[in-house]
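Justification of resources, computational component.

The compute hours requested in this renewal are based largely on the per-chain cost of generating structure records like the one below. Each record pairs the submitted sequence with a full structure-token output. That output is archived, and it is also reused by downstream analysis tasks.
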Amino acid sequence: MIATTAAVGAVATGAFTAIVPALEDGTATSAAADGPYDAALASSSTALEKAAPAVSMVPVELAAEAESIEEHVARVVQAADLAELHAKQAREQAERERVQALIARGGLDGWIAEALQVLELPQSLAKPVKKIIMAESGGNPRAVNNWDANARRGTPSQGLMQTIPTTYRHYVHPDMKNRPITDPVANITAGIRYMIDNYGMSTLERGGRTNSSGNYVGY
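The structure output for this chain reads:
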């Protein structure tokens, strides 16, 4: 056994002894000794790699860059919101100026604009309200109906929206209750409020009542 060890050579490698060929002077070759050791080490490393969970590492520079991107997006969104807000305010201001210009000029369009403003209704109703007025009075604030049933009862319809006195007093806007029935703006407020109360906003939006043929029907 001793002779064999001397001839072949024994190399201790940690937990095991590797038997390797010996040179003529009795020393073991390093290549022969390293082979089995490297194989064992590689096998152990592979096992550790399989056992260890994969960890995703984000460099600090990338994390900071991602944060800066989020901040940039937030600033862009905020800027867009502010721009839309400013645009909306500009549109509203332009609309207010348009309505005030209409009111200042007077006339039918101005009276309608003012009445809608007093009633806090959208100016988009101006067109259907004008349609009703033209059908009722032809745009004459002093128009009086002397031929219908109301006239025969002694309560003729009057003004732009052709309201009878009792209807006018009941529906005229409170801020204008002291104005006469033929006051253009006051008369319009009474007519609009009466129509909404009795026929609904949808009827006002359509420009008044119509028959099956689509022709205007008085209210």
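The longest helix spans residues 60-105. The chain has nine helices and four strands.
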